[in-house]
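Section 4.2 – Deliverable D4.2 (structural model, holo form)

The reporting period included a commitment to supply a predicted holo structure for the target in complex with magnesium ion. Inputs used:
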Amino acid sequence: MEKLTRDIDKLGGYLKRQGWLFANENITAVEVPGEGNMNFTLRIKTTERSFVIKQSRDYVEKFPQVAAPVERAIRESEFYSLISDHNILKWQMPKLNGVDRYNHVLNFQDLGNGVDCTYLYQKDEYLEETDLQKIMVFASTLHKSINTDVTNVRLPNRKMRKLNHEHIFIYPYIWKNGLNLDDILPGLKEIGDNLKSDDVLKYRVQKLGEMYLADGKTLLHGDYFPGSWFKTPDDIKIIDPEFCFFGRPEFEIGVTVAHLKMSSQPITLIDKALKIYMDSAPLDKDLCFQFMAIEILRRLLGLAQLPLSLDLEERKALLEEARSILV
Ligand SMILES: Nc1ncnc2c1ncn2[C@@H]1O[C@H](COP(=O)(O)OP(=O)(O)OP(=O)(O)O)[C@@H](O)[C@H]1O
Ligand SMILES: [Mg+2]
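Output (structure tokens):
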């Protein structure tokens, strides 16, 4: 396997061997297109055009000591294949120009100088209504269109699901997990310890974890949060379905709503999100709120922390709400 680097000569050789550069085309610049943790992602600019490549390695790019499923880029490409006949879905994602299955590299249309929506976690940043509409309609269209009734593809993505399961349902509830919550925000450890002592809560979390691991009927993006919503000057696009699988839509929408709450979006906006979704696709609201609670707990107490601007009291209120939903 060839490990890509930013070395322009080597990249040029690699891209020509893939047939991803014309014979007389040269790289003029390479740059990091945006914040990412898991993979090696690079924008390639040439004399003719630009595109984005993404390589998955057997570790997490930002934390090389942490192992990760090496084939995850191929799983991501399988998501693109599954939606390739659905124009509404396809047009809201970058075009997948090519797949190097041997080296686990994807070649994407460059969406240009946008940003992902993680700025929403900053104070007084709100999702525009047109963007909310597009985000929720993408999800409902995906869930309605691609399910086990219409395709024989199953895409279990077992290894990525196991990794996610570990981070969502196990790690946050382990006493000595190596994460000092007081380093994140003084006072958070006491709240976390209190939740970790709740056996009923942990039992409910375990049960929902089993549901996450069970195969479902509906194709999910699998990581549907602001980091996967890419805002360009005139549109919003969906990226990074590397955690995709066939599961329960309530998991997807629960995660989305959790992030709307953690980014302090107005309650009217959150209600609207659910309404837009439920106007076109069925949803078990209770189960959705349970997965929402799970996501809040893991983001506030687990390893995959977000750039939140919530103070201790606000985090405590969210955690208590999450507990009360689950127990
Ligand atoms: N097709 C594209 N066009 C322009 N920018 C892109 C494109 N794909 C990704 N990016 C930028 O690169 C960033 C990282 O991409 P992506 O989220 O797919 O990688 P990742 O390694 O899976 O990230 P994470 O660890 O957050 O899951 C995105 O947030 C976005 O800013
Ligand atoms: Mg990713």
